[in-house]
C-alpha cells in the first residue's frame, strides 16, 4: 500500500510510467477503493495510453490505503440508477473496461495488497498475474447483494480456478484466504502486505527484460483458444523465423556473445536473416 493522496470524494485512479513499467494506482481509501464512474473513466483513458505506448512492457495495478485492494463497484452509486442506466453506465461499460485491461498487449500484475470484493476481485482477475497479501481475503460477493459478477469475473474465475471452485466461490460469496487462493491457482505469489507491491514490481521488471514482441505474441496465444493457440503459435513462429525481429537477432547474438540481451521491441522486416552465423 502506498500512502493515499488527498482523498478525492469520487476517488482517483492515476497512471505513472517508470521505465518500462506502468503503475495504475486506485485511490478511494475511505470507501475501500470502491469504483465510481469517474474512476472508471480515468481507468479507460489510462488503458488507452498504455495500449498506445511502445515503452510500457508491463503493468502493475495497486491501491491506496490499508483496508482493501478494492471493495468493487460503488453500491450506493449504481443502486440509485434505473435498470437501463445501470446496464449502460455500469455493467456494459465496466465489462468492456476490464476486457480492455485483460486484452492489453502488455502483461499486467495485480498487487492485491488488501481484501478484494466483487468488482475488486474482477479487476484482479482481468490481470494476467496476481500477487496477494498473506493476510488478505478475496471473493466475488455480488450475489450477496442481488447482482452478479458483471465485469467479466464470472468467466475469468472459472478459467482460473475451475468450474467447481468458481461455483463454490460465486454461489456462496465465499471469501478465500491467501493460502487457498495460492493452492487454487487464483494467485501465483504471496507476500507480506508491505511487500506485495515490491513483489509485483520484481515480476514486472523481469517481464520487461523479455523481447516485447515475442512476449506479446505469447500472451495472445495463451489467451486464445487451444486450436486458436496452435494457429497463433505457428503464425508467430512463422513471422519470427521468416523476418526475424531485431529482438530475435539480438537474443541469439547475445546468447552467443554470453551477454544479457538488450531488447528494443522493434519489428524490422528485412526478409530472411542468417541469425546463427551472421
Ligand atoms: C441479475 C440482475 C442484476 C441487476 C443489478 C445490476 C447491478 C449493476 C452492477 C454493476 C457492476 C457489476 C460488477 C461489480 C459488482 C460489484 O462490485 S458489487 C459490490 C461488491 N462489493 C461488496 O460486496 C463489498 C461491500 N462492502 C462490504 O461488504 C463492507 O464494506 C466490507 C468490505 C466487508 C468492509 O466492512 P467494514 O470493515 O465494516 O467497513 P464499512 O464500514 O462497511 O466500509 C467502510 C466505508 O466504505 C464504504 N464501502 C465499502 N464497500 C463499498 C462499496 N462496494 N461501494 C460503496 N461504498 C463502499 C462503506 O459504505 C463505508 O463508508 P461510510 O459508511 O461512508 O464510512
TrEMBL record:
The Gene Ontology terms for molecular function here are:
enoyl-CoA hydratase activity
Q: Which domain of life is it from?
A: Bacteria
A family per Pfam: ECH_1
Q: Which PROSITE patterns match?
A: ENOYL_COA_HYDRATASE
Region (Disordered), start-end ranges: 259-278
Q: Which InterPro entries match?
A: ClpP/crotonase-like_dom_sf, Enoyl-CoA_hyd/isom_CS, Enoyl-CoA_hydra/iso, Enoyl-CoA_hydra_C
For this UniProt record, the keywords arranged alphabetically read as follows: Lyase
So what EC number does this one have? 4.2.1.17
For this protein, what reaction is catalysed?
A: a 4-saturated-(3S)-3-hydroxyacyl-CoA = a (3E)-enoyl-CoA + H2O; a (3S)-3-hydroxyacyl-CoA = a (2E)-enoyl-CoA + H2O
Q: Does the entry feature the keyword Lyase, yes or no? A: yes
GO BP: any one term:
fatty acid beta-oxidation
Entry's family note: Belongs to the enoyl-CoA hydratase/isomerase family.
Q: Report the protein name in the record.
A: enoyl-CoA hydratase
Q: Give the organism the record lists.
A: Brooklawnia propionicigenes
